[in-house]
Amino acid sequence: MADAGMLRFHVPEPEVRPGGTPDFSDVTIPKAGSVPHPEIDVDPRDIRDLAFSIIRVLNRAGEAVGPWAGLLSDDELLEGLRHMMTLRSFDARMQMAQRQGKTSFYMQHLGEEAVSCAFRKALAPGDMNFPTYRQAGLLIADGYPMVTMMNQIYSNEADPLKGRQLPIMYSSKEHGFFSISGNLATQYIQAVGWAMASAISNDSKIAAAWIGDGSTAESDFHSALVFASTYKAPVVLNVVNNQWAISTFQGIARGGSGTFAARGLGFGIPSLRVDGNDYLAVHAVAKWAAERARKNLGPTLVEYVTYRVGAHSSSDDPSAYRPKAESDAWPLGDPIVRLKNHLIQRGVWSDERHTQAEAEILETVIAAQREAERHGTLHAGGKPSTRDMFEGVYGEMPPHLRRQRQQAGV
Ligand SMILES: Cc1ncc(C[n+]2csc(CCOP(=O)(O)OP(=O)(O)O)c2C)c(N)n1
Ligand SMILES: [Mg+2]
């Protein structure tokens, strides 16, 4: 009552700022194995709770427990570990290459490797991802050559995109990886549209939409949900909640809904939250959602709860807006360490083998880098031809571009 007549403007603030002690006590972590595994044709109203919980498979002892466990073999898990380790090693080398001036820009996946690596294994050939810049694991886990990725990062003469895309904005139709657009949230409407087209043409392929926590504030996100729910589009709607959108904490874009998954409930879309640092949980939930899409049961919204350990990009310095040790305090741990411990617990892996694999992977990444650098880097060696700049957009080149090409003499 004391405030009657005086309005106050509310701006959500993160719990802690630089200099403070990291505090994630408000992140409720359910026990691994405690969240039920519904049938894929469940009525979304019966699983409302799943939009507010976190599906987890790996417990603190490294065991896989509960109804979402048991889908992957030893070999599949060992392969998954290798994919995540490869992505981490690739990131470290490319981040360094950026600091050496070999590329203008880089974005890492540190701490988020399980999300894209495990998700890829739940899709079938021909399915299409509409990714953001933080899902290179989709390519790594599908066997896309690292050299080709590096050629794109270096914008060199072997860059399949001929220097026309920002570094890390890959594209591969064959690997189900739609060209990345820097305009965030466009991925959502495109994925839903692609999925609708797949259904209209009675095809069997499904789509996966990708977005970060911050980008869900874009209207494209909400438009896509309207179309997806109305037309029961065969699409998996992925939200990667890594707690940060550059310097903006997730509470800004989330608004009052409590979780990002809860956004799906108003549209009648089954919505689940999953531990994004648990390879087994990510894969199981992705498989559930993909199967729903393939069986004409429509869209599923999945929120991956994770933490962006690295900087937003090579242009960012997170020490300006969050405590330095915040990532150490993240209660869901590190995805590579957790899968490694699980494999040791299963008796198919060891610390020695892990160290050896790290060295082998680094060697493979360095060999790929050498090969890519033979084709040039940002400021040295081979470049795409200037002529390429004019190609590949129009079926028939308009007169003004033809004139410019003549003026450039290419
Ligand atoms: C439509 C649009 N608005 C703003 C930007 C600038 N921008 C680039 S990344 C970013 C933060 C995105 O954060 P989030 O969606 O959480 O993804 P994350 O980087 O955490 O993976 C912003 C605002 C953009 N690229 N596109
Ligand atoms: Mg984010």
Automatic annotation (TrEMBL):
Where is each 2-oxoisovalerate dehydrogenase E1 alpha subunit N-terminal domain found?
7-44
Which UniProt keywords are given for this protein, alphabetically ordered? Oxidoreductase, Thiamine pyrophosphate
Q: Which CDD domains match?
A: TPP_E1_PDC_ADC_BCADC
Q: Where is this region: Disordered?
A: 1-24
**Domain Dehydrogenase E1 component stretches:** 83-379
The lineage's top-level taxon is: Bacteria
Reaction equation(s) it catalyzes: N(6)-[(R)-lipoyl]-L-lysyl-[protein] + 3-methyl-2-oxobutanoate + H(+) = N(6)-[(R)-S(8)-2-methylpropanoyldihydrolipoyl]-L-lysyl-[protein] + CO2
GO MF term list: branched-chain 2-oxo acid dehydrogenase activity
Gene Ontology biological process: branched-chain amino acid catabolic process
Q: Which cofactor does it need?
A: thiamine diphosphate
State whether keyword Oxidoreductase applies. yes
The answer on whether this UniProt entry bears the keyword NAD reads no
Q: What is its EC number?
A: 1.2.4.4
Top EC class, one word: oxidoreductase
The family classification in the record reads:
Belongs to the BCKDHA family.
Q: What does this protein do?
A: The branched-chain alpha-keto dehydrogenase complex catalyzes the overall conversion of alpha-keto acids to acyl-CoA and CO(2). It contains multiple copies of three enzymatic components: branched-chain alpha-keto acid decarboxylase (E1), lipoamide acyltransferase (E2) and lipoamide dehydrogenase (E3).
Q: What is this protein called?
A: 2-oxoisovalerate dehydrogenase subunit alpha
